[in-house]
Amino acid sequence: MFAQRLTVAAAAALTLLSISACSTESGPTLTAPEAFEKHQNGQLTLIDIRRPDEWRKTGVADGALRINMVHPQGASGFVQQVSAELDGQRDTPIGLICRTGNRTTHMQKALREAGFTQVYNIKEGMVGSGAGPGWVARGLPVEPCKTC
Hints:
The chain is of the alpha/beta class. The chain has one domain (28-143): 3-Layer(aba) Sandwich (Oxidized Rhodanese, domain 1). It is built from five helices and six strands, in the order ααβαββαβαββ. It has helices at residues 2-25, 32-40, 52-58, 74-85, 102-113; strands at residues 45-48, 60-61, 65-66, 94-97, 119-121, 142-143. The strands form two sheets. Strands 3-1-4-5 form a four-stranded parallel sheet, covered by helices on one side. Strands 2-6 form a two-stranded antiparallel sheet. Strand 4 (94-97), helix 5 and strand 5 form a beta-alpha-beta unit. The radius of gyration is 18 Å and the shape is globular. The termini are far apart.
């Protein structure tokens, strides 16, 4: 009986370690307030990766670059556009934001694989997720995007 419980406990521990390893693989995260503060202090470039219709719906985080991740050349086109906006400086701290933090996970990985070294995921996104209430609900400043 003891050996059986020990085996179950070991399997549970291994599972938790595996989940933890996978979740950190994509890269570092920031809460919306942390990202806002870093952006305000000039320590972070915010990039909103959503589509124009989403920008119109909620507005865009104040001062964020708008780079739609749905690029005609796919992920590589998105990476090239980010690189162009940052004058090729792949060590610039970047904070990616989308609606709920799911798409930013994928684009964070694409940017890191392309050699960007400081890519942060704002996991709660604009409207909130399990990571937090979101940029809008926290009352952080947004810019309307009526012509997007």
